[in-house]
């Protein structure tokens, strides 16, 4: 009864907010826990929040071995490829992303639907920072048109995670979510990229605000303390050392995220040596060895079942 009352209250709150994209019928129901200590077996979505995002072309370690090193429970690659890659690790859940307009094709939709039928895909991530010209670079109107194609074309058993803007409060996001509601489109979760300073409380409050505004749980698919004053090519100008992040940021924040009902999943953004403002956030170094941040990250509900692909050995 208590859960029913809470659901009704959340639905009512959504309807009275001007910018909400949630109706009672659209309130999400999470996938059931289908068992297993790690929840990563065939046909099973992981029940743990902690994941990783690594491009298959990363210059920091190898994308697939990084996942194994960090004992990730789920991962994404900023694309629909990953699970089909011959190096894709076993016993880990893959989450495809339709990165931008050019990725919304019938062929890609068919690929994701087949992965779902094979018991490998349960969720899909939306467009990557469409509010930025250097990223997905989409108007709200174009994004809604493409979103409708995903809603119509993807298996209804696949849950949809919204686009993630460069800042959660962007007008782009507000207009998109309003359009989703007006057109009666599906949007099961809200995604967020958070680079909002060095205070963990800011990251907590941003998630609570998003969940309260849209009545949906949040996937934090990129976050880390970024020093926007760091000078390119001069890593020593980054004021957030690895040790400072370890002691003052990552531990207190992830302790909060693990306990917050508003956070459905999260994936730390592991920087690289070429990123002046983010290089100290690396989970693995250039050789693919875990940093102190990576060692801590891997200790949170570690996926002990993850293995290299058949015939593949760790470097």
Name the descriptors.
about 325 residues; alpha/beta; six-stranded parallel sheet; two-stranded parallel sheet
Write the layout of secondary structure elements.
Blueprint: H1 2-16, E1 50-53, H2 63-69, E2 74-76, E3 93-94, H3 106-117, E4 123-125, H4 140-153, E5 159-161, H5 171-183, E6 190-194, H6 200-214, E7 218-223, H7 242-259, E8 263-268, H8 292-298
Parallel strand pairs: 1-2, 1-8, 2-3, 4-5, 6-7, 7-8
Description:
- The structure is a single chain.
- This protein is α/β, with parallel strands linked by helices.
- The chain is built from eight helices and eight strands, in the order H-E-H-E-E-H-E-H-E-H-E-H-E-H-E-H.
- The chain has helices at 2-16, 63-69, 106-117, 140-153, 171-183, 200-214, 242-259, 292-298; strands spanning 50-53, 74-76, 93-94, 123-125, 159-161, 190-194, 218-223, 263-268.
- It has a six-stranded parallel beta sheet with strand order 3-2-1-8-7-6, with helices on one face.
- Helix 4 crosses helix 5, helix 6 (200-214) packs parallel to helix 7 (242-259) and helix 7 packs parallel to helix 8.
- The longest helix is centred in the last third of the chain and has 18 residues, at 242-259.
- The radius of gyration is 19 Å and the shape is globular.
- The termini are far apart.
- 44% of the residues are buried.
- Residues 1-29 and 32-39 have low confidence and may be disordered.
The gist of it:
The chain is an alpha/beta fold and 315 residues long.
Query: How much of the residues is beta strand, in percent?
Result: 5-15%
What kind of assembly state do the chains in view correspond to?
A: single chain
Q: CA-to-CA gap between the ends?
A: 53 Å
Query: Which secondary-structure class do the elements indicate?
Result: alpha/beta
What overall geometry do the principal axes of the alpha carbons give?
globular
